[in-house]
Amino acid sequence: MHISVLISLLSCDNESVENYSNSPTLSPLQIPELFQENIINPVIPNDNPQTVEGVALGKKLFFDSVLSGNNTQACATCHMPENAFSDNLAFSLGAEGVSGIRNAMPLFNLAWNYNENFFWDGSVFSLEHQAFVPVTDSLEMKNSWENVVAKLQNDSEYPELFQQAFQTSIIDSALVVQAIAQFERTLISSNSKFDKYLLGETELTSEELEGFNVFMDEERGDCFHCHGSDKNPLWTDNDFHNNGLDETFIDLGLGAVSGDPADNGKFKTPSLRNLAFTAPYMHDGRFATIDEVINHYSEGLKNSSTIDPLMKKVAQGGVGLSETDKTNLKAFLLALTDYEFVTNADFLDL
Amino acid sequence: MKKIASILCLCLIVFSCHEDKDDNITNTSIVFNFSHNWDGEEVSSSNFNTIQYTNANGEQLSIEKLRYLISRITFTNLNGEAYVLEGYNLVDVTNNSGLTFSSSTEIPFDTYTVSFVFGFNNDDNYQNYTDLNSESWNVPEALGGGYHYMQLEGKFIDNASAEVGYAYHAIRAVDATEDELEFTDTFIEVDLGEFELVNNVVFNVEMNIAEWFKSPNTWDLNELNNALMPNHDAQVMMFQNGQNVFSLNSIEQ
């Protein structure tokens, strides 16, 4: 008797029914097989679950120049899909044509950045907070959040899209970055030739296989200590290292953030996936080609007080790879290229 | 009514006094704390990155990274029955993580010898651990695969007075010079001695980092500073020097 009354009351509560029917649809990340098998789960904040509507809104915002002060620049201007969500400049140009100070980082597999330190210098914690920064940076979008929110609020489409994604049409900056972060978490790259090799779907050439051996050999490339291995499909430790670029530092990197001189000259280890799309390389885009990068580690290391202990034979400039090893290593690195990633329609502004 | 109350009381007394085999099993916490010193001088991440230690060979050095793996924490009673705590622990001194390991494994109150494995034994070493893979803790397949036991890195002053990096990485020793890999076991079984488990307990375990460079092999960093993973003999020397690295500082119970 009491139960039936309770059911009747609940079923007559129009507001509850309406809220339920308007709830965004959960859309958990589709975790690739190699990721599932080898590494722990991605970081998804409890207060920002992936939803169909949130991802769609985030994608629209990512490609919309409304975020910039003069309406000329979107996130995608410097993070272009065809460049694995980077660009081909050493320093990206901001909305007003002013050059930035660091190379635009490619964007993929960001949900597996377990320490959640983002940017080359790790200055921001969490993907959501990362998205706050470019909007107001005077060298990037040069806008204010008040202005962004006002423009979005007065837009003919966005209030409804926020309603669908977050069950409120009242827009604020926190919801904007939540949506962008949801979209960015969907940018998963896992279909390189090497991935397919590990899944038994293709074979590698002898050069690619030998290049992998160079990569994993502590006496030659020794790349694996910072860039992971076949057991870690991220190809980065997401940590910070001084990889011997300079004897003195113009850019302190992590040291400027932590205030610890021992961190000077340390920058985030970038993933080695998709190098074919992400030139130029390093935090300042100083190397135009993969060959230049390999040559740096082979004979171009420069000593400094904070150089990583794993940078061997610094006095000789590096490990001195043979030309064959260099060629093979490059072949392997290019086998980490995910062509499907840069043409995935889900990630394009169609 | 009185009768019912009496029966209830009797039941309570009977049940509360009934001794079954579970009574002796502790639900109390078992905690291991890992701390570090250099011949008695406390070492933590705040002491890293400065050349301030001198090893047995007279080389001055710094520590920039220290991570190591502890597994199979085992309580063995006088009858030889062994209780192995679930899980393993990656101690990361650099990032101040894994310095405490707690277990909810139930162990009966008894007198035990306590031990653990530095690294992984051979059964454990060749499993797939997603958390360790995520830490890039793997050993290349060309060296047999499995996992690092320790990564100790820093700088030292070499014979030419130059500051040079070292990477003292411990793994299962392997001779990879022939087609067929030949292994020597180099995980270390550390015996912490005997104690009686009667309550919540905290074991304070110490690593004397200086011991890695000391005995029986006086470690010459000028000769052995990098690319030590493929160096079978260097790995065996690490194993030998590691025998006296760990000690039990105290037990809190």
From TrEMBL, chain B:
One Pfam family this sequence matches: MbnP
Positions of the Copper-binding protein MbnP-like domain: 28-225
Domain of life: Bacteria
Protein name as annotated: Copper-binding protein MbnP-like domain-containing protein
Organism whose genome encodes this protein: Neotamlana laminarinivorans
